């Protein structure tokens, strides 16, 4: 069974044939002979290119004979009004669906090739990024090592300062219990109990040893002078009391002494300072504003 007979030529099928033409006397027409004639089946009639039209819906065979009566209006002079027999030998045949699928397959292959190329490019980019990251991490490692070396090779003056103020944290933590001990001793001074006084002698000896040890390490206790102007570098105001006879921020009382480590204030003194009453402060402000207006 010839399986070609199961098919027929359809529109847009691609066909390749050898074509021979004969006139009514069975004489071969050389001008119409074509070898490897490639064309697409069409449903549009064109007598100058009649074979693609004649084959539509014809059974698919290896050898085909067709007859066609040309009109008198055909442009080819030797064909006007003549009946021509065409002998066709089928060389190749591709259906429209096959052509479309082939085109889609080709496009898919191209797309895959492009995506593969993109993938390769992205892979190269990723490798480049990984290399850059490794270099960056290596730079960070070197920088850290350099910092360690730098710390180990600090200038003598800076190393001396680090050593000089290394007790700062200790002083900050020590001042509270030290102050509590002094307050306890001061409170005990007013006691009439001989037993308490005996304890005080021991506490004072301990306090004296502590003070000597602190002084030996550059730690000194200081007390701001009363009736002097508050210095924010060494003191901290914890309360303000109205006193119109003194300039604002005049120290009235020292609640707690401050501490220095050499020339650095570690803990500021806690003081009570003066301030103007609201009425006097307002008066001062008005005078100041009048002076400014006068200057303008």
Automatic annotation (TrEMBL):
Residues 287-296 have a biased composition (Basic residues). It comes from the Bacteria. Pfam families: GrpE. GO terms for molecular function: adenyl-nucleotide exchange factor activity; protein homodimerization activity; protein-folding chaperone binding; unfolded protein binding. CDD domains: GrpE. Residues 277-286 have a biased composition (Basic and acidic residues). Keywords: Chaperone, Coiled coil, Cytoplasm, Stress response. Residues 119-146 form a coiled coil. One of its GO terms (biological process) is protein folding. It is found in: Cytoplasm. Residues 277-296 are annotated as: Disordered. One of its GO terms (cellular component) is cytoplasm. Belongs to the GrpE family. Homodimer. Participates actively in the response to hyperosmotic and heat shock by preventing the aggregation of stress-denatured proteins, in association with DnaK and GrpE. It is the nucleotide exchange factor for DnaK and may function as a thermosensor. Unfolded proteins bind initially to DnaJ; upon interaction with the DnaJ-bound protein, DnaK hydrolyzes its bound ATP, resulting in the formation of a stable complex. GrpE releases ADP from DnaK; ATP binding to DnaK triggers the release of the substrate protein, thus completing the reaction cycle. This is Protein GrpE. The gene is grpE.
């Amino acid at each position: 069974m010839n399986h070609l007979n199961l098919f027929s030529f359809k529109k847009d099928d691609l066909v390749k044939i050898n074509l021979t033409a004969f006139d009514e006397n069975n004489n071969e027409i050389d001008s119409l002979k074509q070898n490897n004639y490639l064309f697409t089946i069409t449903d549009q009639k064109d007598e100058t290119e009649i074979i693609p039209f004649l084959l539509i819906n014809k059974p698919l065979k290896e050898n085909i004979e067709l007859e066609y009566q040309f009109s008198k209006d055909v442009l080819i002079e030797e064909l006007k009004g003549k009946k021509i027999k065409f002998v066709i030998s089928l060389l190749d045949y591709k259906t429209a669906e096959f052509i479309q699928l082939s085109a889609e397959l080709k496009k898919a292959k191209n797309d895959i090739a492009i995506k593969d190329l993109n993938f390769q490019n992205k892979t190269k980019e990723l490798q480049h990024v990984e290399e850059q990251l490794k270099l960056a991490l290596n730079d960070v490692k070197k920088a850290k090592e350099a910092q360690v070396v730098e710390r180990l090779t600090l200038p003598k003056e800076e190393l001396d300062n680090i050593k000089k103020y290394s007790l700062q944290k200790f002083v900050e933590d020590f001042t509270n219990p030290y102050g509590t001990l002094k307050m306890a001793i001061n409170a005990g001074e007013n006691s009439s109990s001989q037993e308490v006084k005996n304890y005080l002698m021991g506490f004072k000896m301990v306090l004296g040893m502590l003070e000597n040890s602190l002084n030996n390490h550059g730690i000194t206790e200081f007390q701001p002078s009363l009736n002097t102007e508050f210095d924010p570098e060494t003191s901290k105001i914890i309360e303000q009391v109205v006193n119109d006879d003194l300039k604002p921020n005049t120290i009235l009382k020292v609640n707690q002494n401050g501490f220095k480590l050499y020339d650095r204030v570690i803990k500021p003194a806690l003081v009570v300072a003066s301030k103007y009453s609201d009425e006097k402060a307002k008066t001062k402000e008005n005078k100041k504003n009048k002076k400014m207006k006068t200057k303008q």
